[in-house]
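task queued by scheduler; priority normal; single chain, no ligands, no partner chains; default sampling; output format set to structure tokens
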Amino acid sequence: MNLFENIRLSLSRFYGQEISSERIQLQKTNKQFRGHLTLVVFPLLKISGKDPERTAVEIGEYLVSNELFVSEYNVVKGFLNFTVTSSYWMELLDGIDSAEDYGIKPVVAGAPLVMIEYSSPNTNKPLHLGHIRNNLLGFSLSEILKAVGNRTVKTNIVNDRGIHICKSMLAWSKWGGGATPELTGKKGDHLVGDFYVKFDREYKRELEELKAGGLTQKEAEERSVLMSEAREMLRKWESGDEETVTLWRTMNSWVYAGFDKTYRDLGVDFDKIYYESETYLDGKRAVLDGLERGIFYRRDDGSVWADLTDEGLDEKLLLRSDGTSVYMTQDIGTAKQRFDDYPIDRMVYVVGNEQNYHFQVLSLLLDRLGFSFGRGLVHFSYGMVELPEGKMKSREGTVVDADDLISEMVGTALETSEELGKLDGYSGDERERIARIVGLGALKYFILKVDPQKNMVFNPKESIDFNGNTGPFIQYTYARIQSVLRKADVTLFSRRADLFGGAPDLRLDDREVSIIRLLADFPLVVVEAAGSLSPAVIANYVYDLAKEYNRFYHDFPILKEDSEVLRVLRLVLSRNVGKVIRAGFSLLGIEVPDRM
């Protein structure tokens, strides 16, 4: 039953002329007034020819007399507040309860194809807290976009070449002593990251020695032997030097194995992984083609540039004077490969807001090169994430390592759960499993509940709290619901047909209506989250639902309710709150435990 359409048709009959949907403005009634829905009457004044209050009274009287689901009304100036009958809410609940995949649209052949790029790590260091936010946002976005009927492709571009990679390689060659993940017992990405930090420390030490000899900072950087060796290693790699390429492949294989474990632990995955080492050549060819066609220009030192001053931007380097490429070159090649590989309708890049300018330029360059998809690229720009202690710096080795953070979250979840007695009676393996679900749920929810565009501070202690707007609070609500359903007499659910067939004298309490209204909002919330590209919309909706259910749980008996029909109603309500919590959390990549 579409109440909105019913009201539109009723008003058309009342005023004797067709009323467009745009004129029917329905919204939830403000909590300080009585009623469920509010009709804004101002758009209808030209039709009524009367003042707002008189128009509202006339419409209210008409709806109460002619609309089956409207039981009473009140008028506050130009706003008509009306109460909807219990039978309407029961009909809504019936539809929600009957839908197995409630709120989720099926993906059909021919649906729009959206590609989402996220993660984008460098192979010179392990993943860190910033990567966690990136991965969680990207994975959740792909799930949300799929939930509104899109086909999705989750992609990753691995930055596996460049001067930063050569820094780790050079440091390993000089000071590694043949170290491998097997010999050291370290994850490969951590081992390689250690050498990246080692290079930076030695480089800084070298600069200080040169400056102590009377050189300026710039002169010291130009005289640096270490940096010169790193650049030479990059030139050797690009020229295909066998020894350099072999070392590159070996060290990258260590890193990939480490990344894969972190991704598994975090619960994210990809449908296709691209590598800069395989896309940058396409980018160089596209740039050289643009140079030949006069789209770009070459400077006296041999470097290739794009002049974007007519767009209010500056000039952008595309190829260095020695012929080596830059990030922009690689991104041009990667975009070309992706659109060659897939019939993409929408390309979404999940990259931090420090790269806003980069993607503005990328879109313009692709458009100038003649790629039709250039102007349509979407940069999902999100804010930075920090710890209470402040910013992180990879080169100085002060980043918050993703593996360490995941381990800490699981450990804290186990400790907190045991202190609160939530794991009493469970086996060791079961305790570990629940602690992992809760720990990761706390981490993911705390990050995803924040508006993606905002910078945020991640506080591990605040995230693992069984009260308030946290993942564990919502997970515990879900587990509580499952406990109620397990304890219920299974024969009660056989009364479902009686319940929705028009239970005699069934009058819903406002708290029960509030839960049904929240459940009814779920499909619209998913659409809103997809439209705004914001997992936070889902996260905060699920919290509101869990919070409302807990109020209901504490105020009303369920299994001990004397009225059997109310017992069935409240069990069905509980079942659907659990169903929607599970579905909403699934869109965020968060698991829910059946027991806690």
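post-processing summary
- The two ends are 38 Å apart (CA to CA).
- Residues 115 and 153 are 5 Å apart (CA to CA).
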